[in-house]
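thread from #wetlab-drylab

HS: before we spend reagent money on co-crystallization trials with adenosine-5'-triphosphate, can we at least see a predicted complex? here's what I'd submit
DV: go for it
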Amino acid sequence: MLRIAVPNKGSLSGPAADMLHEAGYRQRRESKELRIVDPGNEVEFFYLRPRDIAIYVSSGRLDIGITGRDLLVDSGADAEEILPLGFARSTFRFAGKPGTAGGVEELKGRTVATSYEGIVARHLADSGVDASVVHLDGAVETAIELGVAEVIADVVETGTSLRNAGLEVFGEPIMKSEAIVIRRTGADVEEPKVQQFLRRLQGVLVARTYVMMDYDCRVEQLEKAVALTPGLESPTVSPLHNEGWVAVRAMVPAKEAQRIMDDLYAIGARAILTTAIHACRL
Ligand SMILES: Nc1ncnc2c1ncn2[C@@H]1O[C@H](COP(=O)(O)OP(=O)(O)OP(=O)(O)O)[C@@H](O)[C@H]1O
Ligand SMILES: O=P(O)(O)OC[C@H]1O[C@H](OP(=O)(O)OP(=O)(O)O)[C@H](O)[C@@H]1O
Ligand SMILES: [Mg+2]
């Protein structure tokens, strides 16, 4: 049975459960459940604090975990990223009152408040800057107003929390994060059960990013049309009862679907349809 750690709270928890559900796995019905077995898929899910997941996975007691890249790096645990999942995207940045500093090199002798002490301490050391780090559990934006630190380092998504606290980011982003799948460093990722789990999640990612496009076009326009919809490998082309016409079917990136439909229409394609893909194995 594959043992998988899933975030039980916070920004990662809802989207992770949604993705697992879309991938055909049983998920817990209520937030108090700490573990559930999905016997049909031979998987057991453990609902753990996002911050602890890398530690459990690095111990080898759990085979796989879903966590944030920033949390993995912060933990320093012996686990590695094996698949990025595309949700809970954020950057990790320094911020302060306007004019506080222009970059990390100006932080010598100053105090930085953060919930991600591991990332910050390493970044300061790599930059050769000697500054103090104060660990806070959350809501670190308030630390400046209350005089606990001059600078914070925190997760930034829309920037709303910083704006509301009258703070501005400065310097280069320290890191970019998103939800990821992790495995103990050096553990075999080729193991069939692990590969099957990854293929299911990849199927969800593809189904979310692509749509299926169908259209009819004249044989003379086929090469131009296929150049617009090359598909992942090659489009399917079938004859139509009407001589001189063919039907084409190909996957296209969902974000480009409307533009591609306009371009196909412009070269004479008709009956252009897009449909959602619910699941796939490439
Ligand atoms: N506003 C946000 N947008 C996107 N990702 C976020 C956001 N806030 C936190 N994250 C990501 O969520 C993970 C942290 O999860 P965690 O549950 O510890 O914090 P949280 O989402 O802030 O929840 P909590 O309410 O417990 O503080 C990190 O990978 C972080 O990058
Ligand atoms: O750039 P934004 O879109 O505002 O998002 C970033 C904020 O979201 C998270 O805070 P959360 O609400 O989880 O509170 P916390 O600080 O207590 O973790 C994070 O710690 C930032 O404060
Ligand atoms: Mg938070």
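DV: The chain has a mean pLDDT of 97.
HS: ok that's useful, forwarding to the group
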